[in-house]
Automatic annotation (TrEMBL):
Record protein name field: HTH tetR-type domain-containing protein
DNA-binding region: 35-54
PROSITE patterns for this protein: HTH_TETR_2
Lineage: Bacteria, Bacillati, Actinomycetota, Actinomycetes, Kitasatosporales
Keywords from the named record: DNA-binding, Transcription, Transcription regulation
Entry keyword Transcription: yes
Native organism: Streptomyces regalis
All residue ranges annotated as the HTH tetR-type domain in the record: 12-72
Top-level taxon in the UniProt lineage: Bacteria
Length: 199
């Protein structure tokens, strides 16, 4: 059976091993200094198979980013659905609940979140991250029912989103879950205060 004919479960196992090894090496050495041979050795997967699945180091990094984004989006969407199911319809309460879920995900995946916040990524990654950040601001504006056409509303939502992103980076440096919870609680209090419309 050739590599393209590998069973789906085996293919998922190989991909997971490669991504886990890539995360280890990227967090230890940084993206620039990470070596494909070390990633392959740690994963127990031949370098040729790594190239077949991801095309190289950039593909591995982007796959980790995509996995993190998708998980964060799933987590926040599930939280918002649950809150709405409980009858919560206040935009600020929903925004803070979604933010809390996002920050919990950043803590749960702190090594990956910290890696993705660093400036050491593949060429073009900063542009991709900025595009996602703009989409994130737009989603937050819709959630908060802010008119993005008005500069003050855009700025307010952009500041709120930046606070969440900064807090997610801080969580990567927390020593334990208690400290992480304190940061999340503090940030959510700040978000409540900053979310209130002026006036």
């Amino acid at each position: 059976m050739g590599p393209s004919q590998a069973p789906a479960g085996e293919d998922r196992t190989v991909r997971r091993a490669l991504l886990d090894a890539a995360l280890e090496v990227f967090t230890e050495r940084g993206y620039t200094d990470a070596g494909l041979s070390e990633i392959a050795a740690r994963s127990g997967v031949p370098v040729g198979t790594l190239f077949q699945h991801y095309g190289g180091k950039r593909g591995l990094y982007l796959a980790l980013w995509e996995e993190f984004r998708e998980e964060q989006e799933r987590r926040t969407a599930a939280t918002l659905n649950a809150e709405r199911g409980r009858g919560v319809d206040d935009p600020i309460a929903l925004f803070v609940a979604g933010s809390r879920a996002y920050l919990a995900g950043a803590w749960d995946n702190r090594r990956l979140a910290k890696l993705l916040a660093e400036d050491d990524g593949p060429a073009g990654f900063d542009r991709m991250r900025r595009q996602w950040d703009r989409a994130w601001v737009r989603r937050n504006a819709r959630l908060l029912k802010v008119d993005e056409r008005q500069r003050a509303g855009r700025v307010r939502v952009s500041v709120l989103t930046t606070v969440i992103g900064g807090a997610a980076r801080e969580l990567g440096d927390c020593g334990d879950e208690t400290e992480a919870r304190e940061i999340v609680d503090e940030v959510c209090g700040i978000l409540v205060h900053l979310s209130a419309p002026p006036g």
